[in-house]
Specification:
With about 180 residues, the protein is α+β, with helices and mostly antiparallel strands. The chain is built from 3 helices and 9 strands; from the N terminus they run ββαβββββαββα. The longest helix has 10 residues.
Length: about 180
């Protein structure tokens, strides 16, 4: 079960859109902060609109996330406060109606084959739709993967990089390892 579960019974959803707000408690924010490996999530809330579409076979969830969190700066490890304000839309369809995801010759998702106007689809669950988990996942993709504190600058400290080959004048970082392995033979 999700750290932030808000089940919504889809059979209660009729033709008219339903507006719903989900707000994480302090305990849920702490659990999500651990899950997403951030220092803290101070606030997480989403205002959602759920509506049946495609002749009632599918459900579109549109939402607006508002959150505040703290992450460690990737340079200084100092806390960096951030605010999130994101809009999202997800279309839930019966599993048999899911469009196949295009893959390339290597079996990787072919992002270039997905048109910008294509709506990404998720499979409708058999039971209730967990709005909390949906919000958590949408929130997760908004988190800055490389937060940086104001003024934080990376200052590389280069030490000794390895022996220099006298003949070629090139650094050979694995020369010592090669010599050690040759001795062990």
């Amino acid at each position: 079960m999700s750290e932030f579960s808000r089940p919504f019974a889809l059979d209660a959803l009729r033709e008219r859109p339903v507006r719903h707000t989900v707000t994480a408690t302090a305990e849920e924010c702490a659990a999500l902060a651990k899950r997403f490996e951030v220092l803290a999530i101070d606030r997480l809330e989403a205002k959602l609109t759920l509506q049946r579409v495609r002749a009632g076979r599918a459900v579109r969830v549109e939402g607006r996330i508002a959150a505040s969190l703290q992450q460690a700066c990737v340079v200084s490890l100092q806390p960096v406060a951030q605010k999130v304000a994101e809009i999202f839309s997800v279309l839930f369809v019966p599993p048999e109606d899911l469009k196949p995801i295009p893959v390339d010759a290597d079996g990787e998702i072919d992002v270039a084959a997905i048109a910008a106007e294509d709506e990404l689809e998720e499979a409708l669950p058999n039971g209730p739709l967990d709005l909390g988990e949906l919000v958590a996942q949408e929130f997760a993709v908004t988190i800055d993967p490389y937060p940086r504190a104001d003024g934080a600058e990376f200052q590389p400290q280069w030490g000794e990089v390895g022996p220099v080959d006298a003949a070629e004048g090139k650094i050979k970082p694995f020369a010592d390892l090669k010599a050690k392995l040759a001795k062990e033979k």
